[in-house]
From TrEMBL:
Keyword Repeat: no
Keywords recorded for this protein, A-Z: Oxidoreductase
InterPro entries, per the entry: Ald_DH/histidinol_DH, Ald_DH_C, Ald_DH_CS_CYS, Ald_DH_CS_GLU, Ald_DH_N, Aldehyde_DH_dom
GO MF, one annotated term: oxidoreductase activity, acting on the aldehyde or oxo group of donors, NAD or NADP as acceptor
Residues in Aldehyde dehydrogenase domain copies: 30-493
Oxidoreductase found in the keyword field: yes
Taxonomic lineage: Bacteria, Pseudomonadati, Pseudomonadota, Gammaproteobacteria, Enterobacterales
PANTHER family named in the record: ALDEHYDE DEHYDROGENASE-RELATED (PTHR11699)
Organism: Xenorhabdus eapokensis
Name of the featured protein: Aldehyde dehydrogenase
C-alpha cells in the first residue's frame, strides 16, 4: 500500500477549531457541545466541530436575508456569474487540498475526490455561471376584449425566491453543496448550507475560498450540526424561503412536510430509491459485467443514482454472476489515499452497521450470497463488495435501499415481465437499460418510471441534463434549465394603456 502524503495545509486545517461560517467569517458555535469527525478508513477521530444551535441559525439566516435584499440584489447578473467562475478557478487551484480533505472525511478514493468533488464541482459552477445572465421572463399576448379602444400587455419576470436552505448528505460533501449553491447564486438567491454531521469540514474551506473569490460576505453561510436540531431550525426560520435537500427518503419526506407546514416553503427534494439496471439478451456476458460494475460499485455504491437491482436474462445469469465475482475479487480495496485503490471503506460507522444488517437480512430470507457479504478484518469500516441472488421480487434486498456495494440480482425471460418488475417500486430516481437494439430501447424508454434513464451507461450526471426523481424519489429537478423554476418565483405583470 502506498499512500499519498497529506498536504501540510490539510493537517493544519484538521487541527483547527471548527464551527460555522457566517457573514464572511468563522464562528465558534457551542463550544460545550462538540461532535467528532471520524476517518472511516481508520476509525480514528481526526477533527472536532462545535455544534450549532438557534443562535447560529438565527445569525446565519439574518445575514443571508440582509445580503439577499442588499449586496446580492445590487450585484449584476454578469457579476454573479463572474463570482461563480472565480470560485471555480479557486476550487481548481486548491484542488488537491480539497480532494484530500474529502477523502479523509468520507473514505472516497482520492482519484474520485479529485475528479468529482473538485473537478466536476468547478464544471458545475461554470455551468451555473453561464445561466446567471440568461434568466428571463416572457412577453405575453393578453386575451381580454377591448371595449373602449384600450389595449393590454403582459409580461412575466423570474424573481429570486429569497434565502435558500441547502441540506447536504455525506456522500458528496462538496459537489452536492455546489449544486445547491451554484443554482441559488445564479438566480440571485443567497444560501445557508447545513452539511452532514459526518462531513462538515470541506464546505467550511470552500466558504473561505468563496470570500477569496470576491463573493460578498453573507451570500454563503454554513451552520453545522445535527439534522433534527440545526436542519429543522433552519427550515422553521421565518427568513427561509426555500429548502433544497438531498438525502434519504424518510428524512426527505419529513423535511418536505415541515417545509409545507411552515408556510408552503418551496422545496426541492432529491432522494434515494432502489434504482434498476436491466440488460437485454443481445448483450454479451463481458459487456453486462462491465455495465454492472459501472452502475453499482463506484464509490462503494454510495451514490444516490447507483443501481441496486439488476435484471439479467436467465440464459446469461450464471455466467454473469461468475465473471462478476471474479472481477470483484480482483478489485483493489484499501486506503482512500492510495491512488490505485478502487474501493474504500463505507463512509461512517452507522452506515457500516446498516450494511452488515442488510447482509443478515439477505441470509435470513434465504438469498444466495454469491460473493462478499461480510466485513473485512482490520480497522475502519470496510466490507467486501457483495453480489446477492434474490429469489423473489418481494425480497427485502430487491426493495430497500442499501446505499452500499451490494448488487441484488434477479433473472427474467420475458421483456414484458421485465418492464413490470422494473416499475414495481415506490421509487423512481434513475434506471438504465443496456442493449444494442435502439429500436427496442426507444420503445421501452417511455415505459420506465424514472426521472433519469440511461441507455448503455449509468450514474453519469451532467450539468446540462435535468436530474431528479419520479414517485417517492423526489420533487423538482436540478441542472439543465429546469433548476431555474425552483429557485425563482414567477411574477406576472399586466398593463392597460
Ligand atoms: O441521511 P439523512 P443519513 C441514505 C443511506 C444512509 C441513510 C442515512 O441509505 O444509510 O440515508 O444517512 C439532515 N431535518 N442516504 O442519516 O438522514 C442530515 O443532518 C432537517 C442516501 O446521513 O437523509 C444530513 O445533513 N435535516 C442519500 C441530511 O439531512 C435533517 C445520501 C441527510 O441526512 C433531518 C445520504 C431533519 N429532521 C444518505 N434529519 C442519497 N440518496 O443521496 C437529518 N437531516
Amino acid at each position: 500500500m502506498s499512500e499519498i502524503n497529506l498536504l501540510e495545509s490539510v493537517t493544519t486545517f484538521l487541527q483547527r477549531s471548527h464551527g460555522h461560517y457566517i457573514n464572511g467569517a468563522s464562528v465558534a458555535g457551542q463550544e460545550n457541545e462538540i461532535f467528532s469527525i471520524v476517518n472511516p478508513a481508520s476509525g480514528e477521530v481526526i477533527a472536532t466541530v462545535n455544534q450549532g444551535g438557534d443562535t447560529e441559525v438565527h445569525q446565519a439566516m439574518q445575514a443571508a436575508s440582509a445580503a439577499f435584499h442588499g449586496v446580492w440584489a445590487q450585484t449584476s447578473p454578469l457579476e454573479r456569474g463572474n463570482c461563480l467562475n472565480r470560485l471555480a478557478d479557486l476550487l481548481q487551484k486548491n484542488s488537491e487540498e480539497l480532494a484530500q480533505l474529502e477523502s479523509v472525511c468520507s473514505g472516497k478514493p482520492i482519484q474520485l475526490s479529485r475528479m468529482l468533488d473538485v473537478g466536476a464541482s468547478a464544471d458545475y459552477l461554470r455551468y451555473f455561471a453561464g445561466w446567471s445572465t440568461k434568466i428571463t421572463g416572457e412577453t405575453l399576448n393578453v386575451s381580454l376584449p377591448s371595449f373602449k379602444g384600450e389595449k393590454y400587455s403582459a409580461f412575466t419576470r423570474r424573481e429570486p425566491i429569497g434565502v435558500v436552505v441547502g441540506i447536504i448528505p455525506w456522500n458528496f460533501s462538496i459537489m452536492i453543496a455546489i449544486w445547491k449553491l451554484g443554482a441559488a447564486l445564479a438566480c440571485g438567491c443567497t444560501i445557508v448550507l447545513k452539511p452532514s454531521e459526518y462531513t462538515p469540514l470541506t464546505m467550511l474551506r470552500v466558504a473561505e475560498l468563496a470570500k477569496e473569490a470576491g463573493i460578498p460576505d453573507s451570500v454563503i453561510n454554513i451552520v453545522n450540526g445535527s439534522g433534527a436540531r440545526v436542519g429543522s431550525s433552519l427550515i422553521n426560520h421565518p427568513q427561509c424561503a426555500k429548502v433544497t435537500f438531498t438525502g434519504s427518503v424518510p428524512t426527505g419526506m419529513s423535511v418536505g412536510k415541515l417545509a409545507m407546514e411552515q408556510g408552503l416553503k418551496r422545496t426541492t427534494l432529491e432522494l434515494g430509491g432502489k434504482n434498476a439496471a436491466a440488460f437485454l439478451s443481445d448483450m454479451t456476458v463481458e459487456k453486462i459485467v462491465d455495465g454492472i460494475l459501472e452502475a453499482g460499485y463506484v464509490y462503494q455504491g454510495q451514490i444516490c443514482a447507483a443501481a441496486e437491482r439488476f435484471y439479467i436474462p436467465s440464459v446469461h445469469m450464471d455466467a454473469v454472476l461468475a465473471l462478476l465475482s471474479e472481477r470483484l475479487s480482483a478489485m483493489k480495496i484499501g486506503s482512500p489515499l492510495d491512488e490505485s485503490t478502487e474501493m474504500g471503506p463505507l463512509a461512517n460507522k452507522e452506515h457500516y452497521e446498516k450494511i452488515l444488517s442488510m447482509f443478515e437480512t439477505a441470509r435470513q430470507e434465504g438469498n444466495e450470497i454469491v460473493h462478499g457479504g461480510y466485513a473485512l478484518e482490520g480497522a475502519g469500516f470496510f466490507v467486501a463488495p457483495t453480489v446477492i441472488r434474490a429469489n423473489r421480487v418481494e425480497d427485502t434486498l430487491m426493495n430497500e435501499e442499501t446505499f452500499g456495494p451490494i448488487g441484488t440480482f434477479l433473472s427474467y425471460d420475458d421483456e414484458e415481465e421485465l418492464m413490470t418488475m422494473m416499475n414495481a417500486t415506490p421509487f423512481g430516481l434513475s434506471a438504465s437499460l443496456w442493449t444494442n437494439d435502439m429500436s427496442k430501447a426507444m420503445r421501452m424508454t417511455s415505459r420506465i418510471e424514472a426521472g433519469m434513464l440511461w441507455i448503455n451507461m449509468h450514474t453519469f450526471v451532467d450539468p446540462a441534463v435535468p436530474f431528479g426523481g419520479m414517485k417517492s424519489s423526489g420533487m423538482g429537478r436540478e441542472f439543465g434549465s429546469a433548476f431555474i423554476e425552483h429557485y425563482t418565483e414567477l411574477k406576472s405583470v399586466m398593463m392597460r394603456y
